[in-house]
Design brief:
The protein is an alpha/beta fold and 282 residues long. It has four helices and seven strands; from the N terminus they run βββαβαβββαα. The protein has one domain: Collagenase (Catalytic Domain) (3-Layer(aba) Sandwich). The radius of gyration is 17 Å and the shape is globular.
């Protein structure tokens, strides 16, 4: 495993497959005191014109290594996007608001309204709360670090949400991929803690505003934000977490809602480890 990165490359139709990660080393070696794990999942929603799904997970280990399994998309219901080796889903602490900042350099006219509505729906279904910390000049990047004390203080960097032209970012937009999402997970009691993340939409392929029928910015926002709070894909086109856009109106389905409840407030508080530099080991 080489190099840090919060985003793994997207596998597009015809692209060479990403080689599987190396076999995980033995679980905890007592001689290594620090166990810090960065779990990276890129979840993308693929525009309906592309008849392929796209999801890749990469695992970057820091210090000692914990085996991490990539959860397969569920056939129905919901799946966790981030799990530890015991199957515990990664989730945010629902007892603390989730701070977010917006990269608004290329935001669509209705982008702020759509984002507000998507977060409202996400809060309603999950019990998670979000706090808008305003706009940022930070650009999403596959190498974004989750700890930036000079920019955000001594805490985990807030969730970064933005619209960028595909050619202006290395996160994997374009080629039919309309949005990408990644969260940063660190080990914690009772399962991984999600502590930071990014949601990036393709500003060079403008979609219809809102959440109505057809492929909309709202649909992609709902999907990517749900990834950012811990959901994976489900192979049920009636759910928002289906990996492609659909022609239907965008509303969370029963499976989406069950998943959001499972990673949300109903599951209880889930305090996150204190922010710290994540030492990457290649
Ligand atoms: Zn996805």
């Amino acid at each position: 495993m080489t190099g840090p990165g919060y985003f793994a490359p997207v596998v597009l139709p015809g692209a060479a497959p990403v080689p599987p990660p190396p076999a995980p080393p033995p679980r905890r070696r007592s001689s290594v005191p620090v166990v810090v794990l960065l779990l990276v999942v890129l979840g993308a929603v693929v525009a309906s014109v592309v008849s392929a799904t796209s999801k890749v997970q990469a695992v970057v280990a820091l210090g000692d290594v914990i085996a991490v399994e990539e959860p397969a998309p569920a056939a129905a219901g919901w799946s966790a996007g981030y799990v530890d080796e015991d199957g515990n889903p990664g989730r945010w602490d629902p007892c603390e608001p989730i701070p977010f900042v917006v990269q608004a350099g290329w935001i669509p006219d209705a982008g702020r309204a759509d984002l507000a509505e998507a977060l409202r729906r996400l809060s309603e279904a999950s019990g998670l709360r979000f706090v808008d910390e305003g706009d940022t000049d930070e650009l999403p990047s596959r190498d974004r670090t989750a700890y930036q004390p000079e920019r955000y203080g001594e805490r985990w960097a807030p969730l970064l949400i933005g619209w960028l032209p595909a050619e202006a970012t290395d996160v994997g937009l374009g080629g039919g991929v309309q949005g990408v999402s990644a969260a940063v997970a660190v080990p914690s009691t009772g399962g991984p803690s999600l502590v930071s993340g990014q949601v990036v939409l393709d500003a060079s392929n403008r979609l219809a505003a809102g959440f109505g029928a057809g492929t909309t910015d709202g649909e992609v926002l709902l999907h990517e934000l749900a990834h950012a709070v811990g959901l994976g894909h489900v192979l049920d086109p009636t759910q928002v977490m289906y990996p492609q856009t659909t022609s239907s109106e965008s509303v969370f389905g029963a499976g989406d809602r069950a998943g959001l409840a499972a990673v949300g407030a109903a599951a209880g508080c889930h305090p996150a480890p204190s922010a710290r530099p994540l030492r990457l080991e290649g």
